[in-house]
Design goal:
alpha/beta; Rossmann fold; six-stranded mixed beta sheet; about 35% helix
Length: about 270
């Protein structure tokens, strides 16, 4: 499978008068159709690196490639057309008076013919399960519904890459679960490449691979299972998964594996040990 994103020795600092880099000689790649989570403490460089990929920030050194093209001032707009970003607060992204108007906004800016635009808007709203709310004011929606509308606006533009920048952090657990179910369905349907900046364990568990950032450097790359097996999760800004907490509290009473277990795997092991 081809590489959709590649960073080669990328460095960046907001203030060039100081020695500290927010992104320090970082290299990694993301394959087409892969779901990649990026984790780490606040200030570790997670959000900065995705802004570099989208060209919102310009790297001081190194090379960035998106879908085989190097990111330069000449290619930035072509590359941005391949990427959609869902931010933490959806209210900052709304511009339309209704859900339908808001989803249509990006297509209008691209000069898409009206008939095609209406079809794409309708389809995008349907795909995120918001068709019955298409005439509703975005401000009257719940947090999870607002994020669905933000995703519909991106899907209508038909990007190949979607970046979720703490997109579930303001949602309740049910809203997070619903939004992740929508994203997983869309990813499979359109072979989307997804990058998720998150502290949410459920979101991380959905990903194929996880990058850990520490003080602007890429500390490690691993599967979610390998990540959850670490004993220093608090040190990288994550809580222990619930199943791991239960596993540790029961380990003195039951012969359980030391590796990370999902909740269903933990239940299976407990039944076997009885």
């Amino acid at each position: 499978m081809k590489q959709m994103i590649e960073l080669k020795n990328v460095s960046f600092r907001y203030d060039k008068t100081v020695e500290e880099y927010q992104i320090d000689t970082v290299s990694f790649h993301v394959k087409q159709g892969e779901w990649l989570s990026i984790v780490g403490h606040n200030g570790s460089g997670k959000s900065t690196v995705v802004r570099l990929i989208d060209g919102l920030l310009e790297a001081e050194s190194g090379e960035i490639y998106v879908d085989g093209k190097q990111l330069t001032r000449e290619t930035i707009w072509e590359i941005r057309s391949k990427i959609g970003i869902v931010f933490q607060n959806p209210d900052n992204q709304f511009v339309g008076a209704t859900v339908e108007d808001d989803v249509a906004f990006g297509l209008e800016n691209q000069g898409i013919p009206r008939e095609e635009m209406l079809q794409r808007v309708e389809k995008a709203i349907e795909q995120v399960g918001m068709l019955e709310f298409k005439d509703r004011e975005p401000s009257r929606l719940s947090g999870g519904q607002k994020q669905r509308v933000a995703i519909a606006g991106i899907i209508a533009l038909r990007p190949t890459i979607i970046i979720l920048d703490e997109a579930t952090s303001m949602l309740d657990p049910e809203g997070r679960e619903d939004l992740m179910a929508v994203m997983r369905k869309l990813q499979k349907k359109f072979q989307l490449t997804i990058i998720s900046i998150t502290h949410d364990l459920t979101e991380i568990a959905l990903s194929d691979r996880t990058l850990v950032f520490q003080k602007g450097k890429l500390e490690s790359s691993m599967t979610p299972r390998e990540l959850f097996s670490r004993n220093d999760l608090n040190g990288i800004g994550l809580d222990k998964p619930f199943s791991k907490q239960v596993q540790e509290s029961l380990s003195s009473h039951f012969p359980l594996k030391q590796d990370y277990l999902t909740e269903s795997e933990l239940l299976d092991q407990l039944w076997e040990s009885l």
